[in-house]
Design a protein that fits this description.
274 residues; phosphoric diester hydrolase activity; two-stranded antiparallel ribbon; binds zinc ion; alpha/beta; 10 helices; TIM Barrel; 8-stranded parallel beta barrel; 12 strands; globular; AP_endonuc_2
């Protein structure tokens, strides 16, 4: 089963807050929500418990997006703060009942991809160790990123997941397309991406996959901005067909500025596929 939801609470929520967002998502017929903690995460344990209860009551699955201010291959103090943010995201996410959280691993800067990758692996081991200590059961997912200056190509996120137990990929197909300036934009390529994941990480990776989809604009430096699905050249319908044909299960998060309209469009289009 593939569940669809928005990144952040639906725009049409009558009131702010994740609990109301969960109710509104269910009213709309969505069955997932990604908590967009991209500007930081501050929440009491009581609030987290209320979110967990609301999600259970409304049969909504949850994921979280960690703050953007994370760089596992930056300067030492930056890495240290990043590790603390990631462990806190994982702890709170697990307390909310989220099954997965994703984040952008960092920027290559002047380093070679290998050098950056080694630091990221070290960071990922520290994050999973920290969460284990807290008994926080949640997938740690490095996201496929939208710019070639950002660590997180398809090959990298697969390799990191293969190397560190508890780490998995978050596959943002729109980022993959934008990162490589308009490549990876047809059914064959989407299916090949999924097959590559299965080849290295096993069928279980496709039975529980964290996916991001949005309309997107790109330039020579990759991702420029997200845009509504109706406006984009990204072939999201072919992507849905590949997800269906390869029988992928998990969570599809719409990161479109059209929020719930596009999450519902993805869900409706997917459900019509035979
Ligand atoms: Zn992201």
């Amino acid at each position: 089963m593939l569940r669809f939801g928005t990144s952040g609470i639906p725009r049409s929520s009558a009131r702010p807050g994740t609990v109301h967002g969960i109710r509104r998502a269910r009213e709309l017929g969505l069955d997932h929500l990604e908590m967009a903690w991209v500007n930081g995460v501050k929440m009491s344990d009581e609030s987290a418990d209320a979110i967990r209860e609301a999600a259970r009551e409304h049969d909504l699955t949850l994921t979280a997006h960690a703050p953007y201010y994370v760089n596992l291959c930056g300067a030492e103090d930056v890495v240290e703060r990043s590790l603390a943010r990631l462990v806190e995201t994982g702890r709170l996410g697990a307390r909310c009942g989220a099954q997965s959280f994703c984040f952008h691993a960092g920027f290559y800067g002047q380093q070679s991809h290998e050098e950056a990758g080694d630091k990221i692996l070290e960071g990922l081991r520290a994050v999973t160790k920290g969460l284990k200590k807290l008994k926080a059961g949640i997938d740690v997912r490095t996201e496929l990123t939208g710019k070639p200056t950002q660590a997180g190509s398809l090959e990298e996120v697969i390799a990191w997941a293969a190397a560190v137990p508890g780490v998995h990929p978050c596959i943002d197909f729109s980022h993959r397309y934008a990162r490589d300036a308009g490549q990876h934009n047809d059914y064959e390529d989407f299916a090949a991406t999924l097959t590559a994941i299965e080849h290295t990480l096993g069928r279980a990776a496709l039975d529980r996959l964290h996916v991001h989809i949005s309309g997107i604009q790109y330039g020579p430096k990759g991702e420029k901005r997200h845009e509504p699905l109706v406006e984009t050249a990204f072939r999201w319908k072919e992507l849905l067909r590949a997800l269906k044909d390869l029988n992928v299960s998990g969570w599809v998060v719409s990161e479109s500025p059209a929020m719930e309209d596009d999450a519902l469009l993805l869900q409706k289009t997917y459900r019509r596929l035979k």
